[in-house]
Every structure is written in structure tokens, then in C-alpha cells.
Amino acid sequence: MKYSEYQPRPDLLKDKIILITGAGDGIGRAAAISYALHGATVVLHGRTLNKLEVIYDEIESLGAPQPAILPLQLSTASSREYEHLVTMLEEQFGRLDGILHNAGVLGARVPLSDYPIETWDEVMAVNLRAPFVLTQALLPLLQKSENASVVFATSGVGREARALWGAYSVSKVAIEAMNKIFASENSFPNIRYNCLNPGATRTAMRAKAYPQEDPLSLPTPESLMPAYLYLMGEDSVHMTGESIDAQN
Ligand code: NAP
Hints:
By secondary structure, the protein is of the alpha/beta class. Helices cover 42% and strands 14% of the residues.
């Protein structure tokens, strides 16, 4: 199937409660707005409160369901802060129908021989540890959904390790592995897990990775939304443990 050609029903995500990490910018912002416009109540996670407030206002002005805001710095989040996040979601919503683990950092583009350890730790904390800890902590809420979808952001350098991509490539290779393990352990049959590779996309992260590239030559985050909607909605209910490309 060509995910880029998927045509979602307007009410695909009606009554669903979906957490989006890194919702303040780039692909996460586009996904939050698109999910809300398809009926979801979105929980906007990010580390920069004012960016989340702007998206919140945008979603409200579009007449979509009222979102929630959940700021958390993932590079340093403590167990207590994760517990607080779970409690807040439990009290406010009582269940969760989906998580888009989208927040990510690029880190350094240098050989491993020179890779700064603090940058390594930050990339691993945001790109790998946070999706693991959040998924595990939120399983009780995902279990309460009829059909829950957990989506991990991957990358071309997660399919095959690539020189000069350092911790970023290692974190994405590992997220692909984690996706398969969660899916094959199949602890709760109502929860599916899949990886989604946006491919080269016009965002701040891509511009940092490829400063010479003309951003206007790249697809926008909005243009990728068919695949993001497909994996979050019930048309993908049969899929688990897979890794797909948004631009295919
Ligand atoms: P982006 O524009 O840089 O956005 C990343 C988001 O993650 C931002 O909202 C950022 O928050 C948030 N974030 C970063 N560090 C965080 C932290 N420590 N705590 C909480 N939130 C944090 O990146 P993007 O291009 O949209 O990328 C989204 C996902 O797609 C990433 O997982 C990336 O690896 C993956 N991806 C992107 C491309 C591409 O071409 N763009 C290609 C392959 C894969 P702030 O806005 O507050 O900084």
C-alpha cells in the first residue's frame, strides 16, 4: 500500500485521546493539528511551553476538540516527573488511545572517535530512553483503550547504521529493535506498535543536518500526514511490529 495516498475519513480519530511528543514544532506540530482535525483530543507534549500554547490556540481556533498541554524536558526527566505525567493523564482522561513518539534531537555529526559524551547521553535520553519509559509507564492507560496505537519515529539511519550520524543513528536502530520487541512480546493484544520514517522533511532538524540543502526542495510535514493518520487510526489495526515510510 502507498501510505502517502491513504485517504482518511474526516472523523478517523473521533473520541480518541492521543499523546504527541515534540508537538511544538516540525512534524509533531503538523501531526497534532492533523490528529485534532480528524477528531482526536490531543495531548501536546514538548519542552518549550510557549510553542505548545501557540499550537493549543491554533487547534482551538480550528474548532477541533480542546487539547491538553504537557511540558516535560525529556533529556533530564526524573522518574517522579514521568509519574506525574502518567497521573495527570490518568486523572484527566482515564485512558490513552495512542502515542506518537516524535520528539527527537540530532546530536553531533562527527565520528564516534570524537563524539561528545554529554551529547551522546542527551540523544539517547530523548530519542530512546524517553519512548521506552513513557510507553512502559503508560501501558495501564493504553490497556484501557479498545485499540491503542504506539508509533515510534524512525529514520533511514535507523534501518541501517550510518557513519557520521553517531548517537542519532544508534538511537534509531535501537528504536526499531524496541518496536519489534514490544510488538512480539504482545503483552496486551489491544496495543499495536509500529515505526514510522518521515523521510527527508522540511524541518529545523533536517536543516541542521543538511545546511547546504534548499528546504523548499523538501516535502512539508503537512504533506506526510496520510501515513501519520493511517498508523494512528483503526485502518492499521492489523499492523504491529512493522516499520513504514511516510513518503512511500
Ligand atoms: P524538529 O523540527 O527538530 O522537532 C523536534 C521536536 O522534538 C521539537 O518539538 C522539540 O522541542 C522536541 N524535543 C527535542 N528535544 C526535546 C527534549 N529534550 N524534550 C522534549 N522535547 C524535545 O524535528 P522533526 O524534523 O520534526 O523530527 C521529528 C521526528 O522525526 C524526530 O524523531 C526525527 O528524528 C524524525 N525524523 C525527521 C526527519 C526529517 O527530515 N525532518 C527524517 C527522519 C526522521 P522544541 O521545539 O521545544 O525544541
